[in-house]
Amino acid sequence: MSNRVMLMEAKEADCSPVFNPLERKSRCAVVFEVLREKIKAGFWKPGDRIYTEIELSGAFNVSRSTVREALNLLKANNLIYTVPGLGTFVSDALDPKMGVLFLDALNLRDVLHVMEFRVGYEPYCAALAAERITDREIGELISCVERQAAGISSEEKCPEFAEMDVNFHGVIAQASRNVLFAHSFDLIRESLLKQQIISASYSQRRKKALQYHEQIIQAFEKRDKDQAQLVMYEHVSETKNSISSLLKEK
Description:
The relative contact order is 0.12. The chain is mostly helical and about 250 residues long. The chain folds into two domains: about 25-100, Arc Repressor Mutant, subunit A, CATH 1.10.10; about 105-250, Four Helix Bundle (Hemerythrin (Met), subunit A). The chain has helices spanning about 5-15, 25-40, 55-60, 65-75, 105-130, 135-150, 160-175, 180-200, 205-220, 225-250; strands at about 80-85, 85-90. α4 crosses α8 (about 180-200), α5 (about 105-130) crosses α7 (about 160-175) and α5 (about 105-130) crosses α8 (about 180-200). A hairpin with a 3-residue loop joins β1 (about 80-85) and β2 (about 85-90). The N and C termini lie far apart (about 70 Å).
């Protein structure tokens, strides 16, 4: 065996300390992180108008829906705001941590209203989904949970954890096969993302959400609508109570 071959084999055998495994990130999370860093670095100053959805879609070579989700994440983090007819602008008062939602009374009251609505509609939505969900959709739920589990201990991955949480509940809304449930979810999606970011900023809330999601998937796999409805009710009720406690503190 030549010295060159032996050297190559030695390098291949020793490559693990050199390269770390690549993280699995959604396109939305990548776009969000890039735009957040651009704002943090001062590429856009407070008050500046950022690129349009079409421009960002072309720049990142992704769909407009992906860009829209990333912009919703930025909005939920109070990094940008939209003026109808004028565009999207960088917020004047940015959180120095660049990625942690302001826990003021206004935000908490907004998400509390969302939680009150969720307690009323999501349990029955889950019951319908348990009877109508496809194996492919269950696979999508499992994928969301796996992504959440991978970043459960990382504060840096809170936005992605929140995104996967919203996607999880969005799949269930679609699986209900009821257009009104699906439409209702679309209406609260942005406010729900804000709520999920607040919840995800607490490690105990992340762990609790993951446990509930796993139980919901188990109920779906068994096509047990009563169990799905019960677990979903416990899940959203417990989250609402947690948000209510934060509101009282504020």
